[in-house]
Amino acid sequence: MFVGGKHDMNGNYRKLYLAYLITALLFSFFFSVLSTVSYVRRTRQHQWRCSDVTFHCANQALCEQWIQVINEQLTLFTNRPKSLLVYINPYGGKRHGKRIYEQKVAPLFRCARISADVIGRSLSVAFLNI
Q1: How far is Cα 40 from Cα 80, in angstroms, rounded to an integer?
Q2: Which end of the chain is more exposed for a tag (fewer CB within 10 A), N or C?
Q3: Longest dimension (CA), the chain
Q4: Residue 34 per-residue DSSP state
Q5: First and final CA of the chain: distance in angstroms?
Q6: What is the pLDDT along the chain (130 residues), one digit of tens a residue?
Q7: DSSP symbols for 90-121
Q8: Is the distance from CB of 48 to CB of 42 less than 8 angstroms?
Q9: Would you say residue 40 lies in a domain?
């Protein structure tokens, strides 16, 4: 989490801000129902950013209505993939393809309920096939 503003070397400002943020979230949690929608938006060509929108609803029924309407709208996308075949290039980037997939891409696929079959070779196997 990025926290803007100045803080001393011990991070006192950050600790104070995080304590305030946690208190505010707990306070709002007791008086409303929270629901978070995650999405991905394009920032530049071939660059995407993950974002979240949190809804605060007055009661559980209203929150469930929002979720139902959003899910109904998502089912209208007929070109939305349900399963993907992922190729991980062991030489791509700085040879961090597998780690990037496991830490960033796979959680997004799970959240979107997309199943993925992953194909990728280790560097040693790739050298043998050259």
Answers
A1: 14
A2: C
A3: 62
A4: E
A5: 43
A6: 333 444 444 545 555 555 555 555 555 555 567 778 888 888 888 888 888 888 878 888 888 888 888 888 887 877 778 889 998 887 777 888 888 888 888 888 888 888 999 887 654 444 444 4
A7: TTSTTT-HHHHIIIIIHHHHHHTT-EEEEEE-
A8: yes
A9: no
The domain total for the chain is 1
Structure tokens at 116: 């993925």
Write down how long the chain is: 130
DSSP letter assigned to residue 36: E
Q: How far apart are CA 105 and CA 115, in angstroms?
A: 12
> Which ranges of 50-105 would DSSP assign to H, the alpha helix?
60-75, 97-100
Taking the C-alpha atoms of residue 44 and residue 57, their distance in angstroms, rounded to an integer, is: 33
**Rounded Cα distance, 83 and 118, in Å:** 11
Q: Which domain holds residue 102?
A: 81-130
| Amino acid, res. 38 | S
Total-model pTM: 0.53
Write the burial class of residue 106 (CB in 10 Å: 0-12 exposed, 13-18 middle, 19+ buried).
Answer: middle
Which one, of 22, 21, 55, 58, lies nearest residue 37 by Cα?
55
